[in-house]
Design a protein that fits this description.
This protein has 180 residues and is an alpha/beta fold. Helices cover 38% and strands 23% of the residues. Strand 6, helix 3 (102-114) and strand 7 form a beta-alpha-beta unit. The protein is globular.
């Protein structure tokens, strides 16, 4: 029987800041959101593992090796978009291991959950060159909630933070069964 373990990966960390907008760093938003989503998923009954719970750096290979050692049902990696303004405002972006997959179904469900919170656009892209997606032995995906360089997206991210985390958890729960 498959496990009901979900691995949450807070992208960047330590010296890897990710994007920056003033004194706001992507690595911090990623960690906050991963931890909050984990709380909601735990309430559903999943076993949650984190690649990091503090501000440390892990390479993508370290993250992949950790994930593969757990035989989980899903690896979800958190990011924020960092393009220059107005390209991707009010968007949730997903990178998946393949289309017509569990990852794509989860991405669509999460996008539908976040739409009422103001994230009205979404895109799903297959990325086969990223180790976190290519080399894991489970469905894997990244999620970028809003553009870090958009004042409005940061407002949405901060104002609806708990609701965003709950919506992401519901999007996963609607696809990945919980086994006891």
């Amino acid at each position: 029987m498959p496990t009901s373990t979900i691995i949450l990966d807070a992208g960047h960390g330590g010296n890897s800041l990710g994007g920056a907008y003033g004194f706001r760093y992507e690595k911090d938003d990623n960690l906050r959101l991963a931890l909050e989503v984990g709380k909601y998923l735990t309430e559903y009954g999943y076993r949650i593992e984190y690649t990091r719970t503090t501000d440390i750096f892990l390479s993508q290979i370290d993250r992949v090796n950790f994930a593969n050692s757990l035989r989980a049902s899903l690896l979800l990696s958190f990011c924020r978009m960092g393009e220059e303004l107005c390209i991707n405002e009010q968007e949730v972006s997903f990178e998946v291991d393949s289309m017509d997959s569990i990852s794509e179904s989860i991405a669509i469900n999460i996008a539908l959950e976040l739409r009422p919170l103001g994230f009205i656009n979404y895109r799903i892209v297959v990325r086969t060159e990223l180790p976190i997606l290519r080399d894991t032995h489970m469905p894997a995906m990244t999620i970028s909630v809003g553009n870090l360089k958009s004042t409005y997206d940061n407002y949405l991210f901060d104002t609806w933070f708990n609701e965003i985390a709950a919506g992401i958890a519901r999007g996963i729960y609607s696809i990945i069964p919980v086994y006891s």
